[in-house]
């Protein structure tokens, strides 16, 4: 009986999978290592020697790629304080980010990562279901981005695992795991809560290098 009541509280698609569609408010996460309202980080990050030195020498006053309107990358897009809109079918999910007006498509039909991926800003994603949790596996990143605003680095070996769990009719539990053996000695996680905002719409966001 309890499982039936729990299931009834979560909107579902025709195939029975949790429905993640909608516009979602998210906490701003400028530093993925820290904990704050609706998000929790691991604290001190397990840097490798290369990762620690790379982070130590990062100086935002000298250069930040987003200041030139280059793409934020997957993790910084997800860390932004601007809302996202999710469009979901039984075969794929698309995440529309208000920040930078970018989108990311995630097949959920059993597709695997292509071989010989060309590195990209957002990486290549595939989604699978672990019970009622959508697990998004992303690899194939270039080395032109940071994980967050404070400049935590990553390498081309970055592997990101995201877990979307619809916890009730208004919230998604979101967990992201960073696995990058060149930069960090072990994988680490950040968790947060997304809130459904049916009264919101994502709006135009314009970032043009040297715009006035």
Q: Your description of this structure?
A:
- The protein has 212 residues and is mainly beta.
- 10% of the residues lie in helices and 30% in strands.
- It contains three helices and ten strands; from the N terminus they run αββααββββββββ.
- Strands 1, 2, 3, 4, 5, 6, 7, 8, 9 and 10 form a ten-stranded antiparallel sheet that branches.
- A hairpin with a 4-residue loop joins strand 8 and strand 9.
- The protein is globular and about 50 Å long.
- Give me the secondary-structure category: mainly beta
Name the quaternary structure: single chain
The average pLDDT is 93
In helices, the fraction of residues equals under 10%
Would you kindly provide a brief summary of this structure?
This protein is mainly beta. It has helices at 2-8, 49-56, 74-79, and strands at residues 22-25, 39-40, 84-88, 92-97, 102-107, 124-130, 133-139, 159-166, 171-179, 188-196. A hairpin with a 2-residue loop joins strand 6 and strand 7 (133-139).
SSE topology:
Layout: H1 2-8, E1 22-25, E2 39-40, H2 49-56, H3 74-79, E3 84-88, E4 92-97, E5 102-107, E6 124-130, E7 133-139, E8 159-166, E9 171-179, E10 188-196
Antiparallel strand pairs: 1-3, 1-10, 2-10, 3-4, 4-5, 6-7, 7-8, 8-9, 9-10
Q: What are the main properties of this structure?
A:
single chain; 212 residues; mainly beta; 10-stranded antiparallel β-sheet; 10% helix; disordered N terminus
């Amino acid at each position: 009986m309890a499982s039936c009541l729990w299931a009834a509280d979560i909107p579902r698609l025709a195939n029975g999978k949790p429905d993640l569609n909608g516009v979602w408010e998210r906490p701003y996460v400028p530093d993925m290592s820290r904990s704050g309202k609706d998000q929790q980080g691991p604290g001190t990050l397990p840097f490798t020697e290369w990762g620690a030195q790379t982070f130590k020498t990062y100086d935002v006053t000298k250069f930040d790629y987003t200041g030139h309107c280059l793409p934020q990358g997957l993790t910084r897009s997800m860390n932004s304080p601007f809302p996202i809109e999710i469009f979901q079918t039984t075969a794929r999910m698309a995440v529309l980010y208000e920040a930078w007006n970018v989108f990311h498509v995630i097949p959920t039909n059993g597709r695997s990562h292509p071989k010989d991926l060309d590195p990209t800003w957002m990486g290549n994603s595939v989604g699978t279901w672990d019970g009622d949790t959508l697990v998004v596996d992303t690899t194939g990143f270039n080395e032109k981005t940071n994980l967050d605003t404070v400049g935590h680095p990553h390498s081309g070996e970055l592997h990101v695992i995201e877990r979307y769990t619809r916890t009730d009719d208004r919230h998604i539990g979101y967990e992201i795991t960073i696995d990058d053996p060149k930069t960090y000695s072990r994988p680490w996680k950040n968790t947060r809560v997304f809130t459904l905002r049916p009264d919101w719409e994502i709006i135009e966001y314009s970032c043009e290098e040297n715009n006035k």
